[in-house]
């Protein structure tokens, strides 16, 4: 999932702790592989370990960034075939 911030970064940062806690919970369930802000910080990337876009949208719909209206996400499917994530455990 690729996010785009909809408000100034200061407003995004007001929600960031809740967003990071949400991602931490998903990570504990093996649903988040990695995540981080874009540089420059106009959005971010969340690499989810899910079977399909519907599940990704379901999960990201509960992200505090979405619930508070500070970011929107678009989905981009990807299957690693090389490198460090090639053998990452599937959901």
From TrEMBL:
Pfam families reported for this sequence: YCII
Record domain YCII-related: where: 10-74
UniProt cross-references to InterPro entries, sorted A to Z: Dimeric_a/b-barrel (IPR011008), YCII (IPR005545)
Family per similarity comment: Belongs to the YciI family.
Protein name as annotated: YciI family protein
Species the sequence originates in: Paractinoplanes aksuensis
């Amino acid at each position: 999932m690729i996010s785009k911030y909809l408000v100034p970064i200061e407003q995004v940062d007001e929600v960031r702790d809740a967003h990071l806690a949400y991602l931490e919970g998903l990570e504990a369930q093996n649903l988040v592989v990695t995540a981080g802000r874009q540089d420059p910080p106009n959005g971010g990337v969340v690499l989810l370990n899910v079977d399909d876009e519907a599940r990704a949208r379901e999960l990201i719909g509960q992200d505090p960034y979405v619930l508070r209206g500070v970011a929107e996400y678009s989905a981009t499917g990807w299957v690693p075939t090389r490198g460090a994530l090639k053998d990452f455990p599937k959901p």
